[in-house]
Amino acid sequence: MPALRPSPVPLPTQLSWRPGHFTLTRDTAVRACPGAEPAAALLRTLLAPATGLPLPLSPDGQLVLTLDPQLRGLGEEGYGLTVGPDALLLRAARLTGLLRGVQTIRQLLPPEALCDLPRQGTPWQLPCAEITDVPRNAWRGFMLDVARHFQPVARLRRYVDLLALHRLNVLHLHLTDDQGWRMPVAAYPRLTEVGGRRPESMVGPDGSTVRDGVPHQGAYTRAELSDLVSYAAARGVTVVPEVEMPGHTRAALAAHPELGNVPGRSLDVWTDWGVCDTVLAVDEPVLDFCRTVLDEVMDVFPSPHIHIGGDECPTTEWAASPAARARAAAEGLPDTDALRGWFLGRIGAHLVERGRIPTAWAESGEGLPPEFTVMAWRDPEHTRLALKRGHAVVSCDHRAAYLDYAQSADPGEPQAQPGAVVDLRAVHGHELPDDTESAGELLGMQAQLWTEFAPTADHVDRLVFPRLCALADRAWYGPAPWPGAHGRLRAHAARLAALGVRHGPLDPYVPLPHRSEKEQA
């Protein structure tokens, strides 16, 4: 019986179905041409658990993976895939393109191919097809906040696999914040020993006075993070680290109060959500501390982009600090509010000197040096303004890409960040400005999950999926009519089920007629 035609997510740029199907059997072998060996190894590793097929390497293999640098139109990540009745050919100009094609091969197989246990009796068939596939956006990312709620490294590896399946290429780790410090720094062990623990957590939204009374802690080892980087690279995913400064630093100040603006003060790791008003001081020892931390970050993470947070930095402590006021005057700044831009400029210069790209949360990029990559999150117009200022920009519009907001108006939805509903259609409709006349470069888009309201793996899965699938489709393929995209996402649920992803709703919430909210709940 011929294989059914699947619904890939993201949708390939060009896809033409052909008659017939190709069947994987115990006699099927893989031919890896020079340079394609890592992609062949990944394909064999990913298909083995469910299929049980050996897929040995052979110069006469029917699954052919080849690199051809002359395929210039495919760029860094594009690939061509031809599935015929007797053979499969995957071609790309770069290894990364082959890695993307491997994930499409997985999606052309039955969903059971994604399981991590043998599936007996499943015909491992791919429909014959001709595919040419090139991403619309270079940056297709997902940020996971591991500071508010620690995520074990095994969970991060699982998310790398999920990103790779959806041809997303950036895992952005939010490693530090007021509520926790997860990044090991050899010169400052107290950052994780003290800053990696808090006695309890807030229950409810910002302003709540309720606490759960449950200690929360966690930190990574350097070896764990280095292994994660290698694991991700083998799947074509870059891990971008983020260490917040000069605000969102209460956990660091709990470990090292001498870095703060009030001499002799003792602080705890913050147990509230929201934005804490304690920030780093602006003297040279603090800048040296930040440079030392970032040097270790750069040793562990080879990512070109190093994220230093940068936003939501209250300046009340600087205004009250004689030392901060003196620093502002000495630097010729109009007031202590301007110290934020000065601070980020100094730290950014350190990263640039070491060949990295400083990256920060920002609204319009105002006050940031031009070498900063801006993650614009508050308003789409800010993306346009940052581009006009010459910045490279990643669009992170909170109304389309913040997955901590509720995904439906259903009263039965688990607690989420207070705010407007960000449903599946809103994520897929994430709009990017036309930057053809801008001085800057629009890199792409990224989804965010802040984890104040996602304490468990199931919470994370439900908030992230299927919305991240919608963003992946939008970021790779580009704008597409919603009915067709929605149909593909609904069909994709079978793959999520095979992967054990406990996802949120695929269909819009429709209130039942003639019933109160209480009755509907």
Automatic annotation (TrEMBL):
Keyword Hydrolase among record annotations: yes
One family name in Pfam for this protein: Glyco_hydro_20b
Keywords: Glycosidase, Hydrolase
Origin superkingdom: Bacteria
Beta-hexosaminidase bacterial type N-terminal domain sequence ranges: 9-133
EC number assigned by the record: 3.2.1.52
InterPro entries the UniProt entry points to: Beta_hexosaminidase_sua/sub, GH, Glyco_hydro_20_cat, Hex-like_dom2, HEX_bac_N
Boundaries of every Glycoside hydrolase family 20 catalytic domain copy: 138-477
Substrates-to-products reaction catalysed: Hydrolysis of terminal non-reducing N-acetyl-D-hexosamine residues in N-acetyl-beta-D-hexosaminides
Signal peptide: none
Family stated for the protein in its record: Belongs to the glycosyl hydrolase 20 family.
Name by which UniProt lists this protein: beta-N-acetylhexosaminidase
